[in-house]
Specification:
Blueprint lengths: L5 H21 L7 H18 L13 H21 L8 H16 L9 H5 L1
Amino acid sequence: MKIIPRNVHGVLDYVVGLVVAGSPWLFGFADHGPATVIPVVLGLGSLLYSLLTNYELGAARVIPFRAHLVIDFLSGLFLAVSPWLFDFSHRVYWPHLAFGLLEILVVLLTRVESAPVTAHAARR
């Protein structure tokens, strides 16, 4: 069941992108190694491609929303497995795993179509 509207997905993109990028400092594992670099790059990358996405909160609207969802899914998958892929799971893994799985879940629950325009909204 798709319960997340596109505009809510857009808000989540920006909020989660910032939190993921800041997570090494928020959760105390910043060391300039892969555990730090991966969430920073993925979080800032998410902000960039969100600005370029063709949806309610996109600025340039170049990337189709379905392609955005594929990027989100792959980014979440990469983030979730990165502690084991880059061998830092003995030091930290839960923020990467949790945010990666959250990103995948949000993709699976997001409606692809935009909300229908109501008569009230059309009069504005």
